[in-house]
Amino acid sequence: MAVNLRILLILTGLRGIHSITTVSKVSVKAGDSITIPCFYESKYINHVKFLCKGYTWTSCSYAVKTNQPSSGKFLISDDKSQRIFTVTINDLTDQDTDYWCAVEIDGGPDVREYFHLSVTRGTPRLYVDHQEITGFNRDTIIISFHRYFGTMKWCRLGSSCVTALSGSIAGARVTITAMVNVFRVTMSGLRTESSGWYLCVSGDFQMPVHVTVTEKPTTTTLATTTTHLTTISPTPEHVNLTTVEVEAYIRASIDIKTLIIPLSLLIFIVLVTLFIWLLLKKHQQNKSASLTKTVAEEEVTYANIGQVRKPSTQTSYTESDVDVMYSSVVAIRQKSVQRVQAIDENVTYSTLA
To answer: What is the superkingdom listed in this entry's lineage (predicted)?
Structure first.
């Protein structure tokens, strides 16, 4: 009976029973983590949700509840706006195979849905690198799933599926590409309402992925007006700048400033050096002129006095010899520090008898 129940649950796939929709079978690697979404009806928004561990409902045990969102390696959260509660199981082991997504009903049987985890120590049968994917409004995202086999579908949890190579879902265009060991889903023309949980379905396995679509950052028009640059007009190529482009522009401006500052400093140093050199040169010229003026020509007078006894020309011995005194005066005018030869016109001879 238990085997027939599991087969029935797998065959029902995404349809879900008991008012909850979730995955049926997921291939996971031991030691990794997995997040499982559980979609519920609007009438259960304010009810307590929980994860129950065990193969049969009657023997399963509480793992974690929304009124106690963390318990050991289990986490649970409830997104009431999307009507989806998610359970995360960390550090998967061979014992983490059978679980139930459940809603607690006061005074009646709880609403539940079973899912199976196929834990392997090798490569999972169907897996994705990241369960969380983010895109911008009107943009495109590509999600690659590995080791696909069998039939392929791309489904919105609790909604419709795209089974052909192309289609639309949640307001976005969907293209499915099958390659060797890769199942690629391309969603283009994303909208805000495209956010939510999706399932990649291949054969008996599903892999849940959460897509978050946000608005693009506010565009910025960059305009620069200088004496050498023309103002940039708000043409489409300038208006539709993304945050990355704006940051790149800012980085480029910063790089230019890092060059301008050292160059300006170098020019300032050169001008100061030239100014100091001119001051020193002028100072040396003034000092030289002052020195030349100090050593200006001065009048120098030389006097030589000698005494000579001149014998008398007369023959008479009664007259004594006459003493004769000679005096020479020389005046030399020096005009500079350099040696100047005396010129006759600058020499005065004087004879004193």
So the answer is: Eukaryota
Buried b (16+ CB within 10 A) or exposed e, 66-89: beeeeeeebbbebeeebbbbbbbb
Nearest CA among 86, 54, 190 for reference residue 133: 190
Residue by residue, DSSP assigns 190-214 as --GGG-EEEEEEETTEEEEEEEEEE
Q: Which residues contact 170 (CB under 8 A, 6 or more apart)?
A: 156, 159, 191, 193, 194, 196
pLDDT at residue 334 greater than cutoff 70 = no
Examine the domain organization and report whether 54 and 101 are in the same domain.
yes
pLDDT computed for residue 148 by the predictor: 65
Determine the distance from the C-alpha atom of residue 37 to the mean position of all C-alpha atoms in its chain, rounded to a whole number: 35
Average pLDDT value for residue range 188-203: 93
- When mean pLDDT is compared over 6-20, 203-217, 338-352, the highest value belongs to 203-217
26 and 1 within one domain: yes
CATH value at residue 141: 2.60.40.10
My answer on whether 314 and 208 are in the same domain is: no
CA distance 199 to 157: 6
Q: Give the pLDDT of residue 321.
A: 46
- Tell me, yes or no, whether 2 and 119 share the same domain: yes
Please determine, for residue 237, whether its predicted confidence score (pLDDT) is greater than 70.
no
Residue 25: domain span: 1-124
